[in-house]
Design goal:
The protein is mainly alpha-helical. It has 8 helices and no strands.
Length: about 200
Amino acid sequence: MNEEHTDDRRTRRTIKAIRQAFFELAREKGLEKVTVSDIADRADINRKTFYHHYDSIESLLDEILEEEARGAAGAIREGMRNENGEIDVMQLFQVLSAKIAEMARLNGSALANVDTEKFIRHFEPVLVRVSSESVHEVYGDVPEEKMRYLVTFVYSGLISVYHRWLSDNSEYDMSELAELLSVLITSGLTGLRDYTAANSTK
């Protein structure tokens, strides 16, 4: 068997073991209490092996957040437009919410304890870039720099809300939250007030 292929497979197994150990420990004792020694013991590796792949727990967490952000960006690309090729904010939020809910189910207990600033730092640039590209195609007359500011405004708030949802381990239905946020973004506070009033009687 090719030695390089064997090394690649061994590396993938090691990284998988490190991540699994990290998420298990974060669930059991809280993110802030997890140490490299804890991870090494649980993954059945030595500390040197951990440091061969990651500089620190922080760098491991950064990599995980980057991957989650790329996954969210992929969901946005697929769900941003309706069958007519138009940008559908409600559909976009539903797709993104489903992705966040999946992330919460798989490893939310670890990511919930990440501070909001770090969460936004990883997610916002990726989401802004993807959304700006798509929105600019539809609303091409808006200057690109201005469009990026507008998209940043939307996503910084959106990501903060979703992170709060993770942190609170909320039982509030994510699809309902997505609908409220969609109304707020598309119709403003007046629209949200009208929507809330109309739905409070149901």
